[in-house]
Amino acid sequence: MVILQVRNIQYRYHDGTFALRGVSLDIHKGEFLAILGPNGSGKTTLLKHLNGLLKPVGGEILLEQKSFTQYTSREIFQKVGIVFQDPNDQLFAPSVWEDVAFGPMNLGLSKSEIAHRVDEALSLVGMKPYANKTVDALSFGQKKRVCIAGVLAMRPAILVLDEPTCGLDPAGVTSIMMLLRELNSKHGITIIMATNMVDLVPVYMDRLAIMYQGNILRVGTPEEVFSNAAEIKYACLELPQIAQLMQVLRDEECLPLDTLPLTIGEAKKFLVSRLNGNRSGTASSLIV
Ligand SMILES: Nc1ncnc2c1ncn2[C@@H]1O[C@H](COP(=O)(O)OP(=O)(O)OP(=O)(O)O)[C@@H](O)[C@H]1O
Ligand SMILES: [Mg+2]
After folding, report:
1. Could you read off the pLDDT of 6-27 as tens digits, one per residue?
2. 190, 136: one domain
3. CA distances from 250 to 234, 241, 274 (A)
4. How many domains does the chain have?
5. pTM for this structure?
6. For ligand 1, which residues put their CB under 6 angstroms from it?
7. Candidates 11, 23, 39: which one to mutate for ligand 1, based on the most atoms within 8 Å of Cβ?
8. Are residues 70 and 97 in the same domain?
9. Ligand 1 centroid to 238 CA: how many Å?
10. Disulfide check for 6: which of 25, 162, 215, 266 has CB 3.0–4.6 Å away?
11. Quick one: 260 and 216 in the same domain?
């Protein structure tokens, strides 16, 4: 089922920059979708449309088959939560607890329900021990988690994140991605995430959309999209590193590959089966 439908939207900033040039995209309920594209391709602009922060100058967006125009802004904010790239743009309350409580408070919920939601959201992102800490005293990665908690406390059906791994160390990247995967697979939250980290896509995401110069160039599974290396290059992107290595082995070392493995797991499976094949080949020729 399509939960969000973007239909031919266009957007022009005040200075005349035409940032979206007719973007169409179907987002399926329960999927984990990556929006991949080079700097300035329109990812942030598109994400800001998905919860109504920006309004398109042309085209429309449908949420659960109903046009955005049929919802109030508050209804959209409740259903589609957005996490900005820079946590400092999002956090504003003095303490972690107050920041996460801000959304539920605005919904007019009872004190006990607010407390329950804040506890639940902070637990989900592993930040409950920091509830009383000052926001300014958190690390960058912790701030990102608090931002996600603030959005989760609204219990959104859809979570939109703008480069959530940007500025994190490798362990921080893995930990945020594992959290997002859990929110998606265990809690059924539809996730749309803009990223430049191409290596993450085949490991965590179901589908990806490639953005280039204000348009969507291609949408599909990682296998479908990354099978067209020329198009990836055209969009100023690269294949995942492991796929690049396998491409070199295929083109320069004549490794027979029908499809390029995209993850370490897939590459390992292929290489181990080749090595085992060769070993048994050597053994049998020795026996003969
Ligand atoms: N506030 C603004 N005013 C004018 N132009 C803007 C504004 N914000 C973005 N743009 C322009 O719109 C285009 C798309 O920008 P956007 O931020 O959506 O790209 P992006 O894909 O998110 O890039 P990045 O990977 O650098 O985050 C760019 O040409 C950019 O210069
Ligand atoms: Mg951006």
Report:
1. 999 999 999 999 999 999 999 9
2. yes
3. 21, 14, 13
4. 2
5. 0.91
6. 13, 15, 17, 19, 37, 39-45, 196
7. 39
8. yes
9. 21
10. 25
11. no
